[in-house]
Amino acid sequence: MDTMTLWHLTGWEFAALAFAALLVGFSKTAVSGANTVSLALFAAVLPARASTGVLLPVLIAGDVLAVLTYRRHAHWPTLWRLFPAVAAGVVAGTVFLMQADDALVRTSIGAILLLMAAVTVWRRRQADGRGEPEPVTTRAGRIKARSYGVLGGFTTMVANAGGPVMSLYLLSAGFRKLGFLGTSAFFFLIVNVSKLPFSAGLGLIDRHSLVLDAVLVLFVVPGALLGKWAVDRIDQRLFERLVIAATVVGGVRLLLP
């Protein structure tokens, strides 16, 4: 039995998942946030709960490629500051998934996508109106780090949608392109790997999902290579606008009956 038959996928549905996997690779090495489009595509093609389990190994493959590309640019003090709060958010997200049915998870993913789109718009406007990033070493900065950590952990566990939350935090901390990519690469590799036992325990990852993952991971690699080539050439502002628009469309689609 082939993968498409196993998951009852049409040719167009598989093409959508393949494109989403390519976007995962691209987002990990070029534009963080593009994988919110991948999240919407996965949740549209597959059952909402199952989509989070299928997407997780694909994201980890992208994280590995990003770490190999930007490993010298990670800022570990920032990572250690975030991890305890993120762990609390992951536990909260796991408890939520234990209680939620597929309809509630689908609605939650849609709402999270719209929230993340709003956060991204707000982030860009704040950046345009501020010459320097706000300090994060003060008491208020530590509180902000914990708040973003908990929200990032929850959203990444429930919907693999922690990227925009962490992007907002890292940009506000003053990270430039390479430092941003290196720090986020290690962050999401560690966090996503730590989510594997939770997802497997919830039945979101099994041998059927891994068969589909084995095929989709093949599309992550060209996406990552494309991102590495484009990172210094891409018009960031235009691409963010396209990502925001696609995220809003995907979020609205998931909220509709």
What's the short version?
The protein has 257 residues and is mainly α.
From the structure above, extract its key features:
mainly alpha; 257 residues; globular; 0% strand; cell membrane; TM_pro_TauE-like; 11 helices
Folded structure, characterized:
This protein has 257 residues and is an all-alpha fold. The protein is 81% helix and 0% strand. Helix 3 runs parallel beside helix 11 and helix 8 runs antiparallel to helix 9. The longest helix has 27 residues. It is globular, with a radius of gyration of 17 Å. The mean pLDDT is 83.
Largest sheet: none
Termini gap: 32 Å
This entry's quaternary arrangement is single chain
Helix coverage percent: over 70%
Distinct helical segment count: 11
Radius of gyration: 17 Å
Query: What would you call the shape?
Result: globular
Task: Indicate the mean pLDDT.
Answer: 83
Secondary structure class reads mainly alpha
Q: What proportion strand?
A: under 5%
SS elements, strand count: 0
What series of H and E elements makes up the topology? HHHHHHHHHHH
Low-confidence stretches: none
InterPro entries: TM_pro_TauE-like (IPR002781), TSUP (IPR052017)
Family: Belongs to the 4-toluene sulfonate uptake permease (TSUP) (TC 2.A.102) family.
Membrane topology: Multi-pass membrane protein
Main location: membrane
